[in-house]
Amino acid sequence: MQNPYFLLFLTITTGLLIGSIKVKNFKLGSSGTLFTGIFFGWIFQNFIHSAQKINELQITFQNIFQFSLILFVSSIGLIASKEIKFILKKFGLKFIILAFLITFSGFIFILISIFITKINPYNLIGVFSGSLTSSPGLATAIEGSTKSNEIIYGYTIGYIPGILAVIFSIYLIPPIFKINIESEKNTIYIQSEQSNIKSFNLLSYSLVILIGILIGNIDIPLKFSTVKLGKTGGILLSALFFGNIEKLGNINFSFNKDTLKSLQNIGLVMFLSSIGLKSGYNIIENFNKYSAMLMLISFITAIFSILVGFIIGRYIFKLNWTILAGTITGGMTSTPGLGAALDSTKSEHALAGYGATYPFALLGMVIFNKILILLT
Description:
Layout: H1 4-19, H2 32-47, H3 51-80, H4 84-116, H5 121-131, H6 135-142, H7 148-176, H8 181-186, H9 202-216, E1 220-221, E2 226-227, H10 230-245, E3 247-248, E4 251-252, H11 257-285, H12 289-316, H13 321-331, H14 335-345, H15 349-375
Membrane topology: Multi-pass membrane protein
Subcellular location: Cell membrane
Protein name: YidE/YbjL duplication
C-alpha cells in the first residue's frame, strides 16, 4: 500500500475488470478505473499513518496524472487531425454555438443557485468549474481573489460528480433517446487521410508535446483579464496543427494510428486511476451534508448543461451521435467524458467533435467565471 505503482496498476486491473461487466447495454468501460481509484485512494491512507509518506504518494499520483493527461490529449489530437478539417468545414459554427451554450447553461444554473440558496457563493463558483471539469476556469476564478480557498474547495468537491455526470450521460443517452449507435456510424462518412506509416517517430511526437506546453503557457489577453490554455488546451492545438500539416522540413508528423490509439488508451486509464487515487480519501472522509449538497448541485449543473447541448445538437443542428458525443464532452471540457464517448461509440468521429469544441468551451469558462466573480 506504500508503493504508488502497485496502487496504480491494482486500480487499473480491478477497474478494467469492473468496467467490462455489462448490464443490458450499459458498462463502465475504462471509467471503472475512476471508481476503483476512489476506493483504493481511500483505503491506502487508512493503512498509512505517516503524513510525510502520504504526501509523497499524493505528489507521485499528481505527476502520473499530468503525464497521462499529456499522453491522452496528444494522441487524440493527432488522430482527430485527419478528420477535423472536414468536420469544421461542414459543422464549424455549430461547434462554437454548442460550446458556449453548454458552458452558459452551467453558468445560469450556478447563478440561480447563488441567489436562491444560502450556500457560500464562492464554493458555488468553484463548483461551476468542477462540474465542467475545467482547470483553466478554476484558475480564472481564483486569480486575484481573496476567497481562493473557498473556490478551490467547491471545485474539489464538484469535480468527481461532474466527471460522473458526463460518463453516465454518454452511456445512457443512446438507450434513453433510442439512438442506434451502429446505425449512426453507418449514416455518416468522413473522408480522412489514412496514413500507411508503420513506425512511430518519438522525436516528432516529443516536439508536438513540447510546443503544446509552450502554447499552453502563453498569456492570452482578454478585455478583462488574461488566460492560459494550459497543458491540455495547448497540446491539443499543437497536435491538431502538426497532425494536419504532416511534415515540416525533414520532420514527419504522420504517426502510426494503432500506436496512437495505444497511447490514448494507456493515458486514459492512468488519468482516471490517478484522479481517483489522489481524490478518494478526501471525497469519502469529508463527506457530510454540506459537501453532499455541493456534489448534488455539481451533478445537476453538469446534467443540465449536457441535456441543453444534446437537445440543441441533436434536434436543432441534427448532428450525428458519434460526433455529438465528442462535441458534448468537449463542451464540458471533460477528458474522461471523451474516453466514455470513444468507448461507447467505437468511433473516431468523437475525437473530431471534442477537438473542435474544446477550445471554445475553455473560452466560455473563462468569460463566465469572470462574470460570476464580478456578480458575487
